[in-house]
Specification:
- By secondary structure, the protein is an all-alpha fold.
- It has one domain.
- Helices cover about 80% and strands about 0% of the residues.
- Helix 1 crosses helix 3 and helix 2 packs across helix 3.
- It is elongated, with a radius of gyration of 14 Å.
- It starts with a helix and ends with a helix.
Length: about 90
């Protein structure tokens, strides 16, 4: 499987991984960075498990370049900031 196809499959699972992170930090205000770190770590573990290559690989670097901004974009749609809701 190419790294690009793996990244596409992971993108489809990001909303669920983000929901899990949201629940894990439900009672902690301003925990967005921790949530993102949790999702990135989960994706890195998935990539490592599928490819058998550790996190410092070129494959992980390419996938992270797609996943990292995708998380930021998805947060706007799936988990809008409460302050922005009030305005």
């Amino acid at each position: 499987m190419s790294w690009f196809m793996l990244a596409i499959q992971i993108l489809g699972q990001l909303p669920e991984l983000m929901r899990i992170a949201e629940k894990a930090f439900d009672d902690e205000p301003d925990s967005g960075a921790q949530k993102k770190e949790m999702v990135i770590a989960a994706v890195e573990a998935i990539v490592s498990g599928i490819t058998g290559i550790g996190g410092d690989s070129k494959i992980w670097g390419k996938i992270k370049m797609i996943i990292d901004p995708a998380i930021n974009i998805m947060c706007v749609f799936f988990f809008p900031n409460d302050d922005k809701k009030d305005k």
